[in-house]
Amino acid sequence: MEPARDQTQGRNPALQKICIVGASGKLGRYMVQHALDRGHEVVGVCREASVDKLEAFKGRITIIPGATDDRDVIERAVAGCDGVLTVLVPRGVNNYSSGTAQAVLDHARPGARLVFSCGWHITLDGQDVYSWKIKALVNVLGPLARLARFADLDDQVEACRRVFASDTLWTVVRGSDLEEGESQGLPVWSRHVGDPILNSNLTRRVDFALFMVEATRNDELIHEAPAIVGRQTPSALAHTPAL
After folding, report:
1. Is the pLDDT assigned to residue 1 strictly greater than 80?
2. Bridge partners of 118?
3. Nearest-CA neighbor of 227 among 171, 179, 183?
4. What is d(CA 129, CA 135) in angstroms, rounded to the nearest whole number?
5. Do the strands 113-119 and 83-87 form a parallel or antiparallel pair, or are they unpaired?
6. Which of 6, 35, 44, 54 is found 20 to 30 A from 22 (Cα to Cα)?
7. Arithmetic mean of pLDDT, 235-241
8. Do 31 and 212 contact (CB within 8 A), yes or no?
9. What is the pLDDT of residues 67-84, one digit of tens each?
10. Cα(166)–Cα(154) distance, rounded to whole angstroms?
11. What residues have CB less than 8 Å from 214, skipping those under 6 apart?
């Protein structure tokens, strides 16, 4: 078993301006709030039809409406940003995730911290060990979702492949199952799914967002794909000293 990890080391506090791609979703709105709480200037990207979901932040953030895979939209949104947080949504069957990732990779300024969100099914080095539940999600429900033209998990895999192959300062945060509720603190993480610390497979959505925002300030997470789990879950408590 790998030692549990948190983000108390290697922080870079210098980030000022952050772009959140997919700001209007549940995860995105939590990220906006965390970023504002830390004093960052925030630019949010969301579909025009979803701008109203950001009404609570009116006057405190800049909103760039448009599809997140629209290269012109992303180019305007990330201009001058020190960090870019991107929700990789496998929406539809038109390469939405990979188009979004590629636009961010191409247009973010050199040296910007790029943090992407996805699920545990993404693997960086092929050393992850998956449960039957995750295998069923990918191998059975994935093709059905694509057939229904609802979602394309393969495109999310392709998006992450492009991120991993890039020379940018990337981190890909791999989330467990999510639930709502009050924050339990910063999630713990492992490099590989299958580590016993991750067995609870549950994270508060507000804490997933917290990990994303904190990752922009943690240089130890550059070129890592941390799989996270809630800090107060049974598996985290059982396998992490002094939590």
Report:
1. no
2. 174
3. 171
4. 10
5. parallel
6. 6
7. 89
8. yes
9. 999 999 999 999 999 999
10. 19
11. 7, 186
DSSP-based helix, strand, coil % in the chain, nearest 5: 40, 20, 40
What is the residue whose two structure tokens read 């997470």?
221
pTM: 0.88
Length of the chain measured in residues: 243
Listed range (4-13, 36-45, 185-194) with the worst mean pLDDT: 4-13
Buried b (16+ CB within 10 A) or exposed e, 199-233: bbbbbbbbbbbbbbbbbbbbebbbebbbbbbbbbb
Q: Say whether pLDDT at 160 is over 80.
A: yes
For 140, counting Cβ atoms within 10 Å of its Cβ (0-12 exposed, 13-18 middle, 19+ buried), the class is exposed
